[in-house]
Specification:
247 residues, single chain, disordered N terminus, mainly beta
């Protein structure tokens, strides 16, 4: 699952297989990657937490505070994967459980809109496609007590640092799936003054099915525009790709 992979089956770090068949699959794959990365800290009864439990509590509190805001934005960069990577901007409106994502890659620009119970992807050629995804399961919109979280988290507290002149607490997080697959290491930065997530850096090692080759992808996400009020609606697309498009 990565921007840089298409027309191949990949086994992701979460232990699942995904088929990326052209540019229409690039964005859903990225959403899955970012969803795991930015939603990793949301505590849930079914999750297994190892290591520094006090640090985990601080991380979970930061994400609860983030998702209590009217809105916020994230911007990110993906590097590695063999074909270049890409950049992205997310707008998230937690009260309405909606988001808008725009991604730029070597294959073009694609967007995802999620509002209500509908998720729509708009492709570079103007076509739209409905996505079989429940927005309530996107981790960065998930309730912190969602029992569907079955990941295993190992937490550590790292030395504090300064980002753009402001102090930040630093945490190490390793995410593992009970289904197997490679662990996902992540570094989380939480503003010492705001108590809100400031940045996440995660690394995914993907195995290409049938090839035995691996690719390493690093995702860096920065949070900003805390408290911005966002009104996110589905797009008016010129063409609809299939009959599954929500009416």
């Amino acid at each position: 699952m990565t921007l840089a992979v298409a027309d191949e089956t990949v086994v992701a770090a979460t232990g699942r297989e995904g088929i990326l068949s052209g540019s229409n699959r690039i964005t859903p794959a990225l959403v899955a990657i970012i969803g795991v990365a930015v939603g990793a800290a949301l505590a849930a009864p079914a999750a297994t937490v190892k290591g520094d439990k006090a640090a985990w509590t601080e991380i979970a509190a930061a994400y609860r505070k983030l998702n209590g805001l009217p809105g916020y934005r994230m911007k990110g960069v993906i590097t590695g994967g063999g074909a270049g990577g890409g950049t992205m901007v997310y707008e998230v409106a937690p009260p309405s459980r909606a988001y808008h994502a725009i991604m730029h890659t070597a294959r073009g620009t694609a967007e995802i809109f999620s509002a209500g119970d509908k998720v729509v992807q708009r492709l570079p050629d103007g076509r739209c496609m409905a996505m079989g995804q429940d927005p309530n399961r996107v981790p960065f919109l998930r309730d912190p007590e969602d029992p569907r979280d079955s990941f295993i988290y190992t937490i550590s507290r790292n030395p504090d640092t300064v980002i753009d002149g402001t102090p930040a607490h630093v945490y190490g997080v390793t995410i593992e799936s009970p289904r197997g697959g490679r662990p996902i290491p992540m570094t989380m930065y939480i503003g010492a003054q705001t108590g809100l997530p400031r940045c996440t850096v995660s690394t995914f090692t993907l195995t290409m099915a049938g090839q035995g080759a691996t690719r390493e992808i690093t995702t860096t996400m920065d949070y900003y525009d805390y408290g911005t009020r966002l009104h996110i609606t589905l797009p008016n697309c010129e063409r609809r790709m299939c009959d599954r498009f929500p009416g």
